[in-house]
Every structure is written in C-alpha cells, then in structure tokens.
Sequence to fold (64 residues):
Amino acid sequence: MKVRVDGGLCQGHTLCAMAAPDIFALRDEDGHAYAVNEEVPAGKEDLAREAARSCPEQAVVLAH
Ligand code: SF4
Fold:
C-alpha cells in the first residue's frame, strides 16, 4: 500500500499524524503533512486507513 498527502488539500490539522505518527509528519515550514515513507510499513495498513478517514480534507491518498 502506498500513501501520500495532497499538499493542495492539506490544511495542517495534524489528525493524520496523531492517528499514525509512524507514517505522517508535519513540515516545519508550512505545517502541512507529508508521508514519511511512500510505502506504508507492513502491518500499518489499518493505521493508514484510519488516518485517511480522520483527515477532514480528504488529503490522505492511499493506493494499492
Ligand atoms: S489530517 Fe489531513 S489536513 Fe490534517 S495534516 Fe493530515 S493530511 Fe493534512
């Protein structure tokens, strides 16, 4: 599973990083989230889905 954050949609609510701190981090410059690793670590797929659900902007994009 791959994950990325759509920088045009992200508003920096931090919810994704709270749901899945191993997968998302926030940039110091603009407070927007990014995926630490494009490939979701094995066993963390549910966390990635949870983060996608928790993002109010639908900025977390998952792909298989
Ligand atoms: S929850 Fe969504 S809008 Fe908020 S920081 Fe994460 S990707 Fe950005």
